[in-house]
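Course assignment 3, question 2. Fill in each field.
Student: A.L.
Task: Predict the tertiary structure for the chain below.
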Amino acid sequence: MTKKVKAEIIAVGTELLLGQIANTNAQWLSQQLAQYGVNIYNHVVVGDNLRRVEETFRQAHLRSDIILVTGGLGPTEDDLTREAFQALSNLSMVEHKPSMDKIQAYFHKQDVEMTPNNRKQARVFETANVWKNSVGMAPGMMVTFEGRKWIFLPGVPREMKSLAIEHVFPTIQQMVSQHEIIKSVVLKFIGIGESKLEHELRDMIQAQTNPTIAPLAQDDGIVIRLTANGESEQQVDELLDKTKSKILNLVGHYFYGVNQATLEGEIVELLRKDSKQLATAESLTGGLFSGKLSSVPGVSDVFRGGIVSYNNEVKQNVLGVPPQVIEEYGAISKECALAMAKNAATKLNASIGIGFTGVAGPSETEGKPVGTVYIAIYDQAGHTIREKCQFQGDRNTIRRRTVQKGLELLYNHLK
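Answer field:
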């Protein structure tokens, strides 16, 4: 059986405590390590203070099997990770020649004099497994001390991720699953809330053993991460497939893809499959929907273009919304949204048009409260959809949720 490992992540840096940057390193590492059956018990952030970093390390050493530390490996005086761990462990440090050679070569190539403090970045613990930093200066390293595995990584996200992918994850996989295969699959859902999804799957979740079932709400919908372990890849795949089938039998109506699938990517594939093309007309979203869709490679095959008609004059004079529609129903109405969708399809020679209008804030418009949104889909085949939504949140949240709802409606229309 897989050994259950207690792990924690420590981020060193006062800028994290001040909120100047977000601790995305811990978030990413936790997501990745879950695939290897590693249980993250603690996230800790500590400022650049030697005494506090040392005390944080002592606490972690008492409770965790694996401690991953990000940050504090740079050349400046406030980079104190090495010094704090040395105070805890009394291990000797040495200069790692390959890393020092790389640092010197960098400054030589830039034709810039290297200041002496840069040598600090090449200092490693004498007993460490040292990992080359392919995209930065300071190497990563792993130290075994009193039965604990200490992993030190730079705080720069791209350097941290590079070292984690190349060295950390393969090492951890060997540590926790020498005789087992661990594999995960992510199922993606739209149009259902986290609480409803968990309610529908409550019996499965309560009875879960292998695979484990972990629902998680994200900005673009709900995901379920299934993680299975077994003695062979075939056994693991069978476990995952069986559990996936049971889940889809219960909530398959809301399912749209696995792993790296995106809703916009699925929409592009459905449009391509049906030989249809899309046009957009956006008011409150200001082109955000078109931008989301156009991020998909190859979208030009199915996306004709869009018209941002924020102003009512543009709605009438460019998009061709009849003045009587705005006069009678208002620009914030399902009738206007449908006229926008229809005229976008007609003017841009598309099979399908989608229109967005609403009130993103900060104040009400046409007597309609902030968060009132109308989305319409017009299909040249004769089908129309008109949806009224009431979103909560600030201006940007309302706009983002409007785009997501538009993707959901369009996907359900096409599938």
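Instructor remarks: The CA atoms of residues 277 and 350 lie 5 Å apart. Residues 157-176 form the longest helix (20 residues).
Grade: pending
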